[in-house]
Amino acid sequence: MYHQVGEFASMKEHRANYCDHRRFAGQMAFLEGFGYQVLNLDHVLACLRGERPIPPRAVALTFDDGYANFSSYALPILRRHGFPATVYAITGQIGGRAGWLAKDPGRPIPNLMSADQLREIRASGMTIGSHTVNHPKLAEVSPQRRRRELADSKASLENLLGEEVRHLCYPFGSFNLGVLRAAEETGYVSATTCLRGPALPGDHPLALPRKAISFGDNLIGYLWKLSVKNRPKPQLVAWRRNLSRER
Known about the structure:
By secondary structure, the chain is α/β, with parallel strands linked by helices. The protein has one domain (4-246): TIM Barrel (Alpha-Beta Barrel), CATH 3.20.20. 37% of the residues lie in helices and 13% in strands. The chain has eight helices and ten strands. The chain has helices spanning 21-33, 41-48, 69-81, 115-123, 143-161, 177-185, 219-226, 234-246; strands spanning 4-6, 18-20, 37-38, 58-59, 62-63, 86-89, 127-130, 167-169, 190-196, 208-210. The strands form four sheets. Strands 5-6-7 form a three-stranded parallel sheet. The radius of gyration is 17 Å and the shape is globular. The two termini are 27 Å apart.
């Protein structure tokens, strides 16, 4: 899980929202050099359903919020390595700014990708997914608003791109069983969370865990996060238990 990629001043807070572009370049070179298989989300789902074998050292790359610096910094590096990635766009703020960051005094307010930039990265082989219309905490809004956020963002992106939009990311990682059911009813086939751990066969496709890449992660830290030997966090274990009961 990435957010912004670019050049940033040293920081002590919100480090999981930033990745220096030089470190990102080193991370992508590491993946290629050590034989990691970078999958798109449709390939991930096929693996988790048992329809395709999971390649050794399989990873997927996701980018939340649709920041404009993805086009400037991340996209050229991904294209150099031939890696796919998924970018989650907030449809009500395409071409705007990440205003929700203003609640943190002194924090820069970056630009979000324009419609043309989203079309460009899609043409480069990236997947565009939904991050809702207005970036709310879906578990905290009414069922009616929740459904509008999910359905309207999907429809807007499909109009923009001229293709079906199948993948979702929950803003702030906020979801519950009602959110999950609404995502399924509005036609999403996957949704990513902020639950920390590796995705495993049998995981619910609308509650996929991820590992956040932080501003301070060097290659040793990156390798540690890539290791499937890392134990899932207790919150992920609890969600897996709850979802297995629901099924």
